[in-house]
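Dear colleague,

Following up on yesterday's call, I've attached the two folding results inline so they're easy to grep. Please treat them as preliminary; we haven't cross-checked anything against experimental data yet. The first protein's sequence and structure tokens come first.
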Amino acid sequence: MYKEFEKKLKIKGNGETIEEVFNKIFSQIKSRLVEKTKELLIRIEPKSVVIINARKIVYTERFLGLFFPRKRTFYEIETEITVRVGIIEISQIKFEESENKLSFLCNLKK
């Protein structure tokens, strides 16, 4: 019923700081795993992070195209993350079924 396995995910993130990029990357892990497995996720443990591609883009931004120039930085990172996943296999649970018949008329007799 409980099962553990390792999964590799390729995830991209971008933002104005490196911390923001990694926060976006790690916040995508659970949603990606939920898409791929239909079971109940119990534990997600990152094992390794490999940077596939990292870009730093610096550009000059100006107010009204002429005034107040300032340099802005934008980061893009593509990673391959290996995670160890613990799940409960919901499809393996055997449920005991019972059916209760209730009617509106039974409640009126009392």
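Below is the second protein, in the same order (sequence, then structure):
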Amino acid sequence: MDAMATHTVRTTSTQFQIVNRDKNPTSVTWSHVERDVRFPVIDLGVTRKKGRVVQFLEQAFEWSRVSYVFYPYFWARRARWIELMDHADDADPAFTGFLRAGMARVLLAATPGYEQAILHYLATREP
């Protein structure tokens, strides 16, 4: 479900044209050009649906208490080993660990009182 859509607007613009003719001197003209321009817009219906899920996830888990462990490249499929080892971010060693990880274990603490709601979400994908 993509939250972006497009909106088409008919526009008129002035275009500068240089006309070169073999026997006549070069001339300059201005012309009006009409064309359709597509602008990206936010699909509010999709955004509302996604917003419900985001709000639920923000409230259901204690994100300040997230814990994670990155496992080495050899936990991935053998075909991906070289690709994973080739990733690097010199400015952030933790991000490099993420990029090179073959697998990760993430532990999230449930906000007290949200345990049943989280189980419901896991079973139905509905917040």
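For the second protein, one point worth flagging: The helical segments are 44-60, 81-85, 93-100, 115-124.

Best wishes,
A.L.
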